[in-house]
Protein: Germin-like protein
Organism: Linum trigynum
Amino acid sequence: MPQLLSLLLVAAALLASPSAALVQDFCVADLKSADTPAGYPCKSVTTVTVEDFAFAGLGVPGNTTNIIKAAVTPAFVGQFPGFNGLGLSMARLDLALGGVIPLHTHPAASEVLFVAQGTICAGFISSGANKVYLKSLNRGEIMVFPQGLLHFQFNSGKGPALGFVAFSSHNPGLQITDFALFANDLPSEVVEKVTFLDDAQVKKLKGVLGGSG
């Protein structure tokens, strides 16, 4: 399929980018050990099989019956140990009608989005001038999001949308701005001071997202 070919080309391009140099053919993650800045320790080569280098999870649609009407299915090192040390990971984005991936950031990776179905409006915000780069993407189109910058995607079409993303790290990290502000125990008065929102708005959002305080 043309979509899959394009996706493979995106992944190949990221594989060609600079990453930690390997002194052996591969280092399949030993997920029983702790992750480190350099990645997981390697499994014993005697226990590595071809299944460590294949992953079927991105072929399964995610459940979009939630508040954001969207689902992210990751293929990070925690789900796909073969990515360990390669400077690469992927994910599947399912967006129902009106679905949104809220404003978020990946501290450890740049991202490439490939639209496989529907129309996705995507954008990011620069860190200096806070300039917004916004684009409506159709099937077969891609967009890049530089490392660490706030960005978002939402379904701007008339039906479901499907995208695949590739990252320049085996563990890109994720922080969603709305959840960081309203889905924890950060005191409401502090949120009000740093966001200029009033008390009613903050408590409403905390209630929706499960926060307290």
User: Anything to note?
Assistant: The radius of gyration is 19 Å. Strands lie at 70-75, 89-95, 100-105, 111-117, 120-125, 132-137, 142-145, 151-155, 161-167, 175-176. The chain has a mean pLDDT of 91. The helical segments are 2-15, 177-182, 188-195, 199-209.
